[in-house]
Each structure stands twice: as C-alpha cells, then as structure tokens.
Predict the 3D structure of the following.
Amino acid sequence: MRKIDLHAENGFKDTTFSVFHAHASPYTKVVNFNFEPGQELPVHSHDIEGELVLAVLEGEGEFLAKDGASMPAKAGDVLISDIAEPHGVRAATRMRVLVVIAPPI
Amino acid sequence: MRKIDLHAENGFKDTTFSVFHAHASPYTKVVNFNFEPGQELPVHSHDIEGELVLAVLEGEGEFLAKDGASMPAKAGDVLISDIAEPHGVRAATRMRVLVVIAPPI
C-alpha cells in the first residue's frame, strides 16, 4: 500500500505537459499528466490489448479522438478507451489528468 | 471510447456512501464512491490477485488500512493497494473517490 501525493510529485512546465510516472506493476501502470492551458497530448494509439482510464482531476479541456473528433473534458469526467483506439488530451485551463493503464504497456 | 461524467451520474446519500459502477470489462473495473462527511467505506480486502488505484477527486478524509492505521487523503492523492491488502476510506468533507481495479474483481 502506497500513497502518492500528485500535487507534491508533479508540477507544470512551460514547454510541454509534465509527466509523472506514479506506479508500474504487472497489473497496471499509473501516469499523471499536467497541462498548462493550450498544451496537448497529441492523438496516438498503441496496437496492443487493454484499456485506459483517463480521469480529469482538475481543470478543463478536451478529450481528443480520431479524425479530429473531440469531447469537452472537465474535473470529474472519465474517459474509457481501448489502448488501440486513438486518444489524446488538450487543455483549456491548467489541467491535471490521471491515466490508469490495464494491463500495463 | 466512452466519456463518463461522474458529477452527473453519481450524487450523495444521507444514509451511506453512494456507489456508481462506471465501467466493467475483461481488463478493469471502474467504480466511483461519493461520501458525505463522516461516511466510511470500512476496511476490507479480497483474497485475489490484482491492484486497486484509489484517486481522491474532491474533498478530504483518510485512507484506512489494517490494524486501525490511516493516512490523510485529499484531492490529488492516489492510493495504490493490492486487492488482498486491507483498505478503506473515511470522509472528513464531502469526498469523491475513483477506484480502478485491475484485473477486475
């Protein structure tokens, strides 16, 4: 059992989103992405089995999908996506996003 | 790909914490627990393999562990625990907690 204080562990960067690898095990991988307004995790995918759970912890922006599609994303929103399905995030405000990958990449 | 608005889907109950089963698949199970101040998910465990990722989305309280142990828990805190390890949550304020279970129970 291990507690992680994401606010203490991960900040923000001017140049690009800030990534903090919180946890990796045979069961899951946990990553925290922090975005300044306008920063983006570009749409991408990995051709492997499994799912991603993206949870917006703070702020507002968009979940990005294939062919330029997007959905508004705000604190309390969760996106479930196959790892193989194109996905991304764009921030409108400062945004903290938690990603849980199962099984881990 | 599916977006879930936890604020829209799950509220609060006077009698006990409010549970919303957000997602279940062969890879993971995603559950949202909302607590009024003082409400508690009692310490429990399941004797199976796998891990839990508990993320505090809003509010403050405690992560509970075996033998009466506890750790302060606030928005942005994440607890990683084996499913087999005793774990629980107690709310001090209104609290929204996201739980991702991998592999699913």
Q: What stands out?
A: The radius of gyration of chain A is 13 Å. The first strand of chain A starts at residue 2 and ends at 5.
